[in-house]
UniProtKB/TrEMBL annotation:
Annotated protein name in UniProt: GntR family transcriptional regulator, histidine utilization repressor
GO molecular function: DNA binding; DNA-binding transcription factor activity
InterPro entries (UniProt xref): Bact_HTH_transcr_reg, Chorismate_lyase_/UTRA_dom_sf, Tscrpt_reg_HTH_GntR, UTRA, WH-like_DNA-bd_sf, WH_DNA-bd_sf
PANTHER family hit by this protein: MANNOSYL-D-GLYCERATE TRANSPORT/METABOLISM SYSTEM REPRESSOR MNGR-RELATED, TRANSCRIPTIONAL REGULATOR PHNF-RELATED
Domain of life: Bacteria
CDD domains assigned: WHTH_GntR
Signal sequence segment: none
Keyword list, A-Z: DNA-binding, Transcription, Transcription regulation
Keyword Phosphoprotein part of the UniProt annotation: no
Keyword Transcription: yes
Pfam families (alphabetical): GntR, UTRA
Residue intervals of the HTH gntR-type domain: 5-73
Amino acid sequence: MTPPQPRYAAVKDHVRRRILSGEWPPDTKIPSENALGPELGVSRITVNRAFAELAQEGLLRKVQGVGTFVARARPRFGLMTIQDIAEEITARGMAWSCRVLRLGVTPAPAEAAAALVMAPGAPVPHSAILHLGDGAPIQREERWLRPGYAPGYLERDYRAETTFAHLVRAGNATAMEQSITAILPDAALARLLAVARDQPCLVIQRTTFTDGQAMTFSRLVQPANRFEIAGRATL
């Protein structure tokens, strides 16, 4: 006798059918956990688990404070939140991979030194990584860390996990601030990101803090036509 299907799996099948049938096309905001639960006769926790697994499978994407949407094949990065880029890429149905461009101690450039409140040229841990989705460049990520923060940072294999994942586990950030600007890439950056010189790229500069002290400074550059930045605030 076939055992009954778990309730969360039945919810997944229900949502998947509505997506694959075209009833819910990409970018459709689907019913909330609180709304779908009573409709299907299950708890909000059951729907939450189904939504989480469908997001991991790349069928759904959750936008903090906004809702749950049918995914499309373009990463979305939070305006007021920090996400793991590997999870963002895979949630859009693409395979994440990366190239480690640099990993070691380097003199802090003026911008990073100012953010970390250190002397320019002071030796700091530094990483430069190119993130890809289905082999296409999505983001060049550079990070500079205050020495001693997130032990083991320079010893990790970032082809297996992201710098973000390690920092979440080994660091203890309590706040962050970030800014977004637009640039036209120079020749080297255009080659790295596989874009034309006249293709706009967005630059996210982010500083994380622990108890008011700056611990990391990141500069993230990505082609504007390969991703979105979105967020919602309560006023």
